[in-house]
């Protein structure tokens, strides 16, 4: 007696539906892990809040930002919050990398690759789960900002656009985390990435104006993709900014779109290529 395997999807529409269903299955797996390990999620959500309290109140009174009226104190917190929103998106890199490396170390990734599922399902499911996590984290940060006196004065449209730019940055950095996780496949490498994330985040305009830095260092900070998103969201939220006169500072809004798209264009195909080559 012979058994004939059911034919796979043939048309583009069938393949798309197949990929979407399998991707959502992987996403649900990650959501179930959240419910079983809520402590990790809570710590991840509270860490940026602790950063806001530390910089906003512990250091904020002594922070003076050129062009920001009322800094430090309340004026600095108005300047700080958009930068912290962007920093929260950056912190997600290590979260994504840890999830990918953990699956690889436990053999979960190999089992997924041996199953009759869409080749893109694992990567798509991982990205959807991380974006849901990031949206939750951003919502918590927005509430935290309101609690410390931050306000979005640009209206509903600009506010939604600012939130969209922040999530676009997170989506771009997500692929950096996926690629790093697939390349190193070791939970120990996450520590090295965590160490590198901090200089990348601080070397921006998230906390201080690049104009207060030495010239060469300020130029690097201005061209940091994080700085473009932070400056663009300050503009959209109508929060005080440092008012740089360089080209990159004056074009922060378009660059907040260009930088993430460039990152996606580089790391998305690298991630897909690396996943397909696992085990070779």
TrEMBL record:
The keyword Cell cycle does not apply. One of its GO terms (biological process) is response to antibiotic. It comes from Allostreptomyces psammosilenae. It is a multi-pass membrane protein. The keyword Repeat does not apply. Keywords: Antibiotic resistance, Cell membrane, Membrane, Transmembrane, Transmembrane helix, Transport. GO terms for molecular function: ABC-type transporter activity. The chain crosses the membrane at residues 38-59, 79-100, 121-148, 160-184, 196-217, 252-272. Belongs to the ABC-2 integral membrane protein family. This is Transport permease protein. Residues 39-278 form the ABC transmembrane type-2 domain. InterPro entries: ABC2_TM, ABC2_TM_bact-type, ABC_2_transport, Nod_factor_ABC_transporter. PANTHER family: NODULATION PROTEIN J. It comes from the Bacteria. It is found in: Cell membrane; Membrane.
């Amino acid at each position: 007696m012979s058994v004939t395997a059911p034919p796979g999807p043939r048309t583009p529409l069938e393949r798309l539906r197949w990929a979407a269903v399998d991707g959502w299955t992987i996403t649900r797996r990650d959501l179930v892990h959240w419910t079983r390990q809520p402590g990790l999620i809570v710590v991840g959500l509270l860490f940026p809040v602790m950063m806001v309290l530390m910089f906003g109140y512990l250091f904020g009174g002594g922070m003076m930002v050129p062009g920001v009226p009322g800094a430090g104190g309340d004026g600095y917190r108005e300047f700080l919050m958009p930068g912290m929103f962007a920093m929260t998106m950056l912190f997600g890199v290590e979260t994504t990398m840890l999830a990918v490396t953990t699956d690889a170390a436990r053999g979960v990734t190999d089992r997924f690759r041996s199953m009759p599922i869409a080749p893109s399902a694992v990567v798509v499911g991982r990205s959807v789960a991380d974006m849901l996590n990031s949206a939750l984290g951003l919502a918590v940060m927005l509430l935290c900002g309101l609690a410390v006196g931050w306000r979005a004065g640009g209206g509903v449209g600009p506010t939604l656009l600012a939130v969209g730019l922040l999530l676009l940055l997170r989506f771009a950095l997500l692929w950096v985390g996926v690629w790093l996780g697939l390349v190193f496949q070791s939970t120990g490498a996450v520590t090295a990435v965590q160490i590198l994330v901090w200089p990348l985040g601080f070397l921006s305009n998230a906390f201080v104006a690049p104009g207060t830095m030495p010239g060469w260092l300020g130029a690097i900070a201005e061209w940091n993709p994080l700085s473009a998103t932070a400056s663009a969201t300050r503009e959209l939220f109508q929060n005080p900014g440092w008012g740089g006169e360089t080209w990159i500072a004056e074009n922060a809004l378009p660059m907040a779109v260009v930088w993430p798209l460039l990152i996606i264009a580089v790391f998305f195909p690298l991630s897909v290529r690396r996943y397909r080559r696992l085990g070779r």
